[in-house]
Amino acid sequence: MSGEVCSVADPSPLSGKTDVRLSLVHLYADLMNLYGDRGNITALRRRCEWRGIDLELQEISLGERFTPRECDLFFFGGGQDREQVTVSRDLAGANGEAIIEAVSEGAGLLSVCGGYQLLCRYFRTSEGEDIPGVGLFDAYTVGGPTRFVGNVVAERLDGDEVRTLVGFENHSGRTHLGPGLQALGRVVVGHGNNGEDSSEGAVHRNAIGTYLHGPVLPKNPWLADRLIHAGLTRRYGTDAILETLDDSSEQRAHESVARTVRRAGNVRTSIR
Amino acid sequence: MDPRLSSALLAGRAAAMLSRALGRGGGTVLPGHVIQRLDPSALQAIARRLPRGSVVISGTNGKTTTSRMIAHIASRTGVHVIHNRSGANLMTGIVSAIAAQTALSGRPRGDLGLFEVDEAHVAEAVDSLRPRCLALLNIFRDQLDRYGEIDLISSRWRKAVGRMPYDGLLVLNADDPIISRLADDASCRVVTFGVEDPRVGGGSIGHDADRRLCPNCGHRLRYARVTYAHLGAYECTECGWRRRTPETALTSVRAEGSDDMLLTISTDADAALVCLSLPGLYNAYNALAAAAICEAVGIPLSATAENLSTFTGAFGRYERVPIGAGEVRLALVKNPVGFNQVLAAGIAGQATTIVIAINDHFADGTDISWLWDVDFEVLDTSASGADTRPHFVCSGTRAHDIALRLKYAGLATADIEVEPRLEFALRIAVEDAEGGGRAIIFPTYTAMLDVRRSLQRRGSVAPFWED
Q: Which residues from chain B sit within 8 angstroms of residue A147, using beta carbons?
């Protein structure tokens, strides 16, 4: 697949540019990679590749550092409790601050489940122990007595447009958002952040936190493109316009899940 | 004679007949429900009377194949085995299997109990069966929606290990650090098995690895050699905790064509050559585990090796079904490590049709995100200059998900057909085989049972409870 890479309203430093590139940092890839998290990286890589964008992937693990100014996108996946504690300690230093700095400068970020929890203020385990978080999202998580496991359909109102999100959740943590923090969506089927207020995930600038895996990006390509857009805008300083891709396979997979789940699930009131 | 046990067994027999008459799966589960309800201590009572005791086998991958290997070997060395060979591995399946081989008096008609047990029920099985031998094969991420994280399973196994009889024997995979660590919780004797062929595997740990941290101190493990996923030769540079030297070792593995392997299995005292009619390193591990367990129950290595050479795959796990001028192969897929191992064995290499049938029913796991941890990229032959590309058929309740995964693996969408109805997808494979093609089907558990039912109706395979 080739063609126009991406263009912006003229005059633009991006039009006709042939060596468009983005850098993606996969945080603690070797320790936080539950639930097919790699699929999110694959989705970003392919969707860049199909548009002729060169995506450079950098994997960061314990004790390794990165330069926030050079990072356009971040991905932070889910992990087991044991790994999460180890990673939390490493984040407490320079890496946590570097993530906050990059996001404040407009970098795109996707965090899923455990990664999402570690970017909130803290996680209080069911034993009452606090695992400190980065505090990128003004939210906290409390360990719950049961696990929320199952398919999820959520909706997001984007201007006038209703976007749907499909995915699978599997978490015992209940995340509560601070008053100023926007949710990623509203749960139609499933539990979302805490099973009480029907909120799912969080959005702060171009950083997204979510409990949805599945993985989330392949079946919700609009979310993947939103991240790519954020990354391009950050790197090239202008509002990028992404080339439209043939997403018919993505749409069919999205709709087939949404249909089955809505039929089987406990549907809350829809935005529609 | 225990009247309560006898009447429970009688009711179980009636349930088995009813189950068969209704064609519901050959009575591999229902009798167990009935018997457990009528006499909760039935299993203990019967198991106690097995002259050679019981063997319990668990692990994420290879339970069914390994236990079928042992049954095959044991029965050919004159040991009468009572075995839940259909793979019904919850307590009800075990009770059903043992009851089917027990006289109404409560006397078992066999010498040795051989039971594969679901990962979540090992402690229960140890308590009821009081086994002479507990073998734990491996632990990988599998059905997280059902089992939770692997730490949860390993902590349950720690409990099971601690409850083994003092005179029992624990057989562990030395190459799996999570399994090997269980030796520290054992109060009984421990032996291990592992791969000692330095040519096997590589230096870097796979992305599908589940444990890279030391189970002892939480620091990073260093691998001198990785056989696959997180299996290999490891040590902790921080606390010094390291792999045990296995008593039963695979000292040489060589693939013979795409379907067979030549293995050398060695113990302190002996070594033997095995020609295994199964492909893939994971099957080499299964054979090695079977040899270690046979050794533990007193079957000499020479007899083990000789009989392993006549073993063919367990139903649906790796089954070759000749149809017309060609064949249809079935290779069950359950989790990313297992699927990656099947792909690494290269059995899809010659295929003309590849059916991937993914269901998301409870027994399959309702979360299918693991498909994104499978390296479908290896199926992309467009770069290798092959003149014919296989036809991909995506089927099952999550047919569209697998089609999307293949698209992102870089396969041409023109080669990918979506046919959610399994019956129709199977027909495509069968028609290809009839014309001389080689079709391979990768089904999840319930899809495998459906495919076999269809093949059984065609007369191509026997029902799984008779297989």
A: 148
